[in-house]
Protein: Mobile element protein
Amino acid sequence: MIRIEALWLSVAPLDMRAGMDTLLAQVMRVFGQAQPHHAYLFSNRRGTRLKVLVHDSFGVWPACRRLNQGRCQWAGGQGGVVLTRVQFDALVLGLLR
Structure:
């Protein structure tokens, strides 16, 4: 298992076609740097898809999730916020409606 010490959410929507370089550039732009053992979560404009980028101190791991029901909604803008583990699990498991 990859150890994750901090979870971050970017409130700005991301084009889900973005590859590794674009995701990493977005992490740098929003959070300043990609720190080891941190996970960075992004969503598309409609809030129906999620991408997470995990830095494991050796490299980065991307993962994608499509929500079958409901949408993620949060205030737009720039920047990011820290998520608790419970909040992150709710987003990734699709518990939000």
